Amino acid sequence: MALATERGTGRRMSEWLRGSRDDVALAFGGDVVRYGELARSVDAAALPPGDGAIGCPAGTDPVVLITTVLAGLKRGRPVLVGAAQADRLASALPPGTELALLTSGSSDPTGAPRVVARTSTSWLASAEPLARLAALRAEDRIAVTGPLHVSMHLYAALHALWLGASVGDALADATAMHVTPTRLARLLEHRALPQKVIVAGAALSPSLRTAAAGRGIRLTEYYGAAELSFVLAGRGGGLAPFPGVEVELRPDAAGDELWARSPYLALGVIGGGMLRRDDDGFATVGDLAEPAEDGSFRVLGRGEAAITTAGATVLAEQLEARIVGLPGVVAAGVVGEPHELLGERIVAVVELADGVDLAGVVAAARAGLSPAELPRRWFVHAVPLTASGKVARGVLREALTAGTLDGSRT
């Protein structure tokens, strides 16, 4: 892939800014910033005094956030994305940290943050392989569909700038977008979408994949985590190791855990989290997977989200994908609640398309799901999401306990 260069000089502005001076780099909220303007803003950015870490809180204007991140990287100062105050966390960052991203687990009702520390190089290394897999080019207009303090969306924005493409929040004229499966399902209900879509953050149901293909959309799916970055990727359901990644399946109580070794791994995590490493350079966040005969892998979901019911183990993420595959279901969240006889019983919260009746969905579930997977309670309610677009199961558990869900059917 040819490098986009600054027009007239042939000089790259930076490792991340590779567009031509007069081309549009950013288009957020109606504001348009060209590459030359962005490069000047990065050089002139007024950062906090000193040489310590820089805080960049959630809710920061996207143009300001990107400018701050690039300015910090250029001046050799760690940037804590999602944090207002950097001083409190800076001393705990591993040596060599350039980017630190606050993230919260989908199972935590408090949204308690943890900090994933990484180098800029660990993201840059994956830029060319992703561009090749997703057929992204400098001519693309790339839309992000979530806040930039979330690692998935920040990476998407920086990747677009690395391409020399434009990136923004408008879908109307976009030629490509990054999205989670839940947001993709919601968007497919209401509007035309770009022809190139990169999907991550949760399992993609076969029905959603088919619906996107029916609209002529070229889907690129990948599995990763803020701690691991890219692990698996592919098109059509089967995911193979992302270029540069070695994978292993290792037995665990809930199934086979997926371990990865690559140049894309984070330096470490502050504040807990699921990241575990071994002495050979492999790491895992506890996600389970199974191999296919063609050598690809299917990610089943996080082992910590397993529901034990009547002696069977059901993975919440895998079941959510199957429920979203039922006719008329736009989004689904699944949790377990204590039950005297079953140990746990499965509770499903679903968003339905207009005119769809819950009774029909329940009937389809009884016909299509195994007895162990079949939810014993159903609610029609908006499915809460984390900032990254994943199902916020902790919030669902809280609402279930508080009795604030609607539309119960036992």
UniProtKB/TrEMBL annotation:
It comes from the Bacteria. Signal peptide: none annotated. Residues 319-390 form the AMP-binding enzyme C-terminal domain. Its EC number is 6.2.1.3. SUPFAM superfamilies: Acetyl-CoA synthetase-like. GO terms for molecular function: long-chain fatty acid-CoA ligase activity. InterPro entries: AMP-bd_C, AMP-bd_C_sf, ANL_N_sf. Keywords: Ligase. Belongs to the ATP-dependent AMP-binding enzyme family. This is Long-chain acyl-CoA synthetase. It comes from Agromyces ramosus.
